[in-house]
């Protein structure tokens, strides 16, 4: 695949970076810590004006009709600036809606593109594996609609969202439902997590009644929709990690050029040069793996599940190694609350386990290769 950006994509990156430079600061991100707001609402409004939530929504549905790689390019920039926005969870719901034939599709996608609707994806459950096998929330037919019972964890920005995409079991098979966050029986509580700059929530669904129109997909269509959402989530999470890695590399190179020891910049020492070179290699490889995974989402000629799994297995570990080198090369100052380094490290650690950690994806890849070899044999 050709990883060179088009002129339009370069413009998207430049405009996004300019906006984040002007409107998103680490000081603003720090203000979210322990605050009531889960994300920077002012920054999100500017992002909506730039077209972030509309990027991958089809033009027929009121969007810009771009591709998943364009979303990934924006996610990279969000990672670089450590911005707190609901782009990724909202984009995941918009993509699932766009792939469906739900009767509410047009209205909801229009609201998402306009920025009047923030949505999030509720799939993970406490103590359960990532993916379809981890779904224990149950949906039952009831009075022309459905009743949902269960609990979800680590739902990003659920306390600021108006709509949840909830995955549940209907007749022992996965099904997808649109649930309003103000519906009776929905309880949302913010978690205390390592990433203090973003909101992750526990969502409890106690006898939540929804009408028939809330069913987004069931049966085979639900399997396909859920698989695509997982793949897109994985690619966008990797993209944020890439941006974090790029910023950590820039911070570290800048610091070792200025910090002096024995009358010389520490960056002139061979051991420090080697570590910076390793960081650059890991970031570049992570970028290539992530771009490939994002591009396969809109291609019928590649195995997207495998590409996304390879990316997450590699990027999760590589960017955390970058963070480890950055912390070591910054020395004692890197351990202080006042320095920004730990904020990037925290988000890198959390992102590395979201959408399945490296071990999960390696096991999946191994099982896939074993099945492939068995079939060939």
From TrEMBL:
This is Acyl-CoA dehydrogenase domain-containing protein. One of its GO terms (molecular function) is acyl-CoA dehydrogenase activity. Residues 229-367 form the Acyl-CoA dehydrogenase/oxidase C-terminal domain. Residues 6-115 form the Acyl-CoA dehydrogenase/oxidase N-terminal domain. InterPro entries: Acyl-CoA_Oxase/DH_mid-dom_sf (IPR046373), AcylCo_DH-like_C (IPR036250), AcylCo_DH/oxidase_C (IPR009075), AcylCoA_DH/ox_N (IPR013786), AcylCoA_DH/ox_N_sf (IPR037069), AcylCoA_DH/oxidase_NM_dom_sf (IPR009100). It comes from Mycolicibacterium chitae. It comes from the Bacteria. Its cofactor is FAD. SUPFAM superfamilies: Acyl-CoA dehydrogenase C-terminal domain-like, Acyl-CoA dehydrogenase NM domain-like. Belongs to the acyl-CoA dehydrogenase family. Its EC number is 1.3.99.21. Pfam families: Acyl-CoA_dh_1 (PF00441), Acyl-CoA_dh_N (PF02771). It is an enzyme of class 1 (oxidoreductase). The keyword Transit peptide does not apply.
């Amino acid at each position: 695949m050709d990883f060179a950006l088009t002129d339009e994509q370069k413009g998207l990156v430049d405009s996004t970076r300019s906006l984040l430079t002007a409107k998103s600061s680490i000081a603003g991100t720090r203000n979210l810590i322990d605050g009531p707001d889960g994300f920077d609402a002012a920054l999100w409004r500017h992002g909506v004006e730039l077209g972030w939530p509309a990027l991958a929504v089809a033009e027929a549905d009121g969007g810009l009709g771009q591709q998943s790689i364009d979303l990934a390019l924006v996610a990279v920039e969000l990672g670089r600036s450590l911005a707190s926005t609901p782009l990724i969870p909202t984009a995941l719901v918009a993509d699932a809606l766009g792939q469906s034939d739900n009767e509410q599709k047009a209205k909801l996608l229009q609201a998402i593109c306009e920025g009047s609707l923030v949505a999030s994806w509720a799939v993970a459950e406490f103590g359960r594996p990532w993916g379809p096998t981890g779904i224990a929330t149950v949906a039952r037919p009831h009075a022309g609609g459905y009743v949902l019972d269960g609990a979800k964890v680590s739902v990003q920005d659920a306390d600021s969202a108006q709509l949840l995409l909830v995955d549940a079991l209907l007749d022992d098979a996965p099904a997808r439902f649109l649930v309003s966050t103000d519906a009776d029986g929905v309880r949302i509580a913010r978690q205390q997590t390592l990433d203090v700059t973003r909101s992750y929530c526990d969502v409890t669904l106690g006898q939540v009644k929804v009408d028939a129109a809330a069913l987004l997909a069931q049966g085979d269509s639900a399997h396909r929709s859920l698989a695509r959402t997982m793949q897109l989530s994985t690619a966008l999470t990797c993209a944020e990690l890439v941006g974090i890695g790029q910023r950590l590399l820039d911070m570290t190179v800048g610091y070792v050029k200025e910090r002096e020891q024995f009358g010389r910049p520490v960056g002139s020492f061979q051991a420090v040069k080697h570590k910076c070179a390793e960081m650059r290699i890991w970031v570049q490889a992570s970028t290539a793996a992530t771009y490939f995974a994002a591009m396969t989402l809109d291609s019928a000629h590649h195995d997207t599940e495998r590409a996304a799994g390879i990316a997450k297995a590699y990027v999760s570990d590589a960017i955390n190694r970058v963070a480890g080198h950055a912390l070591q090369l910054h020395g004692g100052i890197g351990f202080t609350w006042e320095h920004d380094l730990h904020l990037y490290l925290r988000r890198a650690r959390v992102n590395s386990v979201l959408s399945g950690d490296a071990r999960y994806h390696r096991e999946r890849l191994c099982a896939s290769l074993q099945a492939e070899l068995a079939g060939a044999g």
